Amino acid sequence: MKYLTSTIITITLFSCNNTTQNTQQLINADKQWCQRASQIGFSRSRVEYADSNQITLLDGDMPLVGIKEAEKFAATHPDTSFSITWKPVRAELSTSGDVGYTFGGWTVKTKKKDGTDTTFYGDYLTVWKKQADGSWKYLADGGNSTPKKVE
Known about the structure:
By secondary structure, this protein is α+β, with helices and mostly antiparallel strands.
């Protein structure tokens, strides 16, 4: 009985640790995407982190469906007029561990028409799919503006 109890506890702890580890990998993928966006621009980084079947929801425009549309968008929308950063505040995985989501807040810094600096805030939800090589790519991404910073 003592052996059975310790075996059950070990299996339970290992399972929880594995879930925590996988969730942290998902959060890290989200953070790495943000870092990459600051290096090469949001539109170009989107292509690097998108699953081939991705869907990106755009504010006031039709969604980008598939990697080819994301590539076309990146080629015609340089990110020179703004910078965007974001931070995940929550992440969850499916029971199978191959699909998950991150939710968080974003900040966009840009200039008004008169040249003064301005900042906008919003939230986002990104659905991720684990790839065959163990990396994470997003399946769906979208967000909207909020009256203050999401934390």
